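Example record

The entry below shows one chain as it appears in the dataset: sequence first, then C-alpha cells.
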Amino acid sequence: MRPPARLVYGAGLAAALMLPVAVPAQAAPPSYRPSADGKKGQELPGMPSALDPRAEEAVCTPASEEKAKKRDWSRQRLDLDRLHQHSTGAGVTVALIGTGVAPDATGLDGRVTAEGAAADDCVGHGTFLAGLIAGTGGNNPRLAGVAPGAKILALRGTDRRGRPSPDLVAAAVREAAEARAGVIAVAVALPRRDKALTRAVAEARRAGAVVVAAATPEPPSSGSADETPPRTYWPAGEPGVLSVADMLPAGARPRNALATGAVDLLAPGAGVVSGGPRGEGHYLGGGVAVATAYTAGAAAVARATHPGDSADEVARRLTATAYPADIPQLDAYAAATTVLGAATAPAAGAERAAETVAVRDTSGADRATGRAKLFVLLGAAGVLSVLWAGFALSRARARGWRPAETGAPGRG
C-alpha cells in the first residue's frame, strides 16, 4: 500500500483502537468482543491463543455463531485487493507451527496437510492463523488471507492446550524443512534458546526456507508486561530468522507488549477477523502470532512472484519494501511488486543486538505530525490577523481617523 492510501484509512482505523490488542489465554467459551469494523451491535467471539492450563480438562473453543459483516482494518492496511490481482501465492507451501489446523475448515478445504495431532486444533488458534495466511474467506472473499492460493502444512509446536514445547517446535521445524516448505511460520516464542531448535532452524535455512517467527510470546493474561524484563525469545532470535511483532492501527505497538531485542517487521495484530476449526462463523483475534501469520503470507506471495529469489533475498525484500518507521511496517503489495535495486536492506536477523532493548513504536512520529499541523494552523491564524489589522487601519485612515458611524443620524 502506498503512503497516500494509508492516510485515507485514518478515520476508519481510529475506531479500531478501541478493540482489544490481544486475546489472552482463556478457557472456552471465549467472551464476545466488538467487531473489527467498530460498528455498534456487531460482536464476534474472541479467539484464544491457548486454553486455561489450570482447568481439569481441555474444553475446546466452540464454533462461532456470528459472522463478520465487513472486512477489518488489517486487510485494508495490507492492500489485499490489489495484491490478489497480482498474485495469490499459488505454488508455495507455508508450514505453520502452532496449535494445529483443522484440514476441513471453511476457506481452507483441500489445501491443508495435517497428520496426527496437527489435525486436532482444540484451541482453534492455528486454524485462525491459517485463514490469515491462505484462507479464501469462504463465502466472503473480502476476508481472504494474504496468499489464498498457497498451501498449508500444519505442524504442532504446542500441546493440546496451546502450551509450546522446545522439543515439539524443533521437531516441527525439521519436518517442515524435510517437506521443502517455502515458508516456515513459527507462531510461538520460547524464553530460552534450545540447541536442537537452533540446529533445526539452521537446517531449514540451508534447505531454502524463509523462516518467520513471533518476536515474543503473547502478553500475560494477568499482571503487567512491565514486570517481565526485556529479553530475546526463540527461534525469533536465531540468525536469518525474520522476527515479527504486532502493531495497532496507528502503527504503535500495544501498551502491554513484551519488550524484546531486535524486531525486523511489524504487522497488523489487533482486531483481526478470521475463521476457526468448527463451523462457518468468525472470531476476533490479535497478538504477535497474528502478525507472524500475515508476514508469512506476504513471504509466500513474494516467493510466488519472485521464484528465483533465495530465502535471504525474500526476507530482504520484505524489510526493504516495508513502510518506513522506527520498526518497518509490513507492506505486502510492495513486497510482491517492487523492483529492487542492488542496494537493499540487510537480511533479516543477520546481526542481532548484543543486548536486548525495549521495542520502539511510531507514536513519537505521530505526535510530531500532530505538532506540525498545529503550527501550520497557528501560523495561518497569525497571517489572517495581520491582514485584518491592515484592512482595519486602511479603513480608519480613509475616515480621517474618525469613529465609524453605527446607525442613521437622529432627527432634530
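Notes for this example: The radius of gyration is 26 Å. Residues 363-398 form the longest helix (36 residues).
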